[in-house]
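User: Second chain of the day. Same drill as before.
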Amino acid sequence: MTDTTRETTADAITVVPANEASWDDLKTVFGTRGEPAKCQCQWFKFRDMEFHPMPVEERAKHLRAETGCDHPEDRSTSGLVAYLAGEPVGWCAVEPRTAYARLLRTRIPWTGRSEDKADDGVWSVTCFVTRVGFRRRGVAYALARASVDFARERGARAVEGYPMITTPGKAVTWGELYVGSRSVFDAAGFAEVSRPSSRRVVMRIDFAADER
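Assistant: Same format as last time:
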């Protein structure tokens, strides 16, 4: 699919806060097989000692409570759900960085930067899930763009992500790309602030800087 086609498709995608989506729709996005179904977007929420012994059913309960699906009256949620022609097609996790216990303990966000880990004014985009059968349709691009307004409107001072650097001609497994690719964040207006490894980059938008 060409970049132009991908962008055109992404423009046709609608994105809503997860609490405005139904739990059945979100379950459809995650599916019943593969890493998204196993993880239920809990990897960044828990440390190894808590995550690994946790049954999938319990992970799903955590996700449902965090998202508040089926409760549009809720004032908070943990991410976004994308739709294409009425079909639920994608998920993106975006919350204050302090919501992610694993993120606060890993080196990825902090290498080469001086950051206050307790600063809940910085939000993080940690995970993308595109429903099987809808990949390469611009779903992640639409979600990344929507995450910017979502964080800003809820009082974030900045929003950042931790995408993989992809190389043309070099295969990258879908499992590695759950954090998103650099091109997805580039297209949403994020800029590189650090490169903690040869394959991972930290990208960010500072809203205060944008407003000056």
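The beta strands are 13-17, 79-84, 87-96, 122-130, 158-161, 191-194, 202-206.

User: Great, on to the next one.
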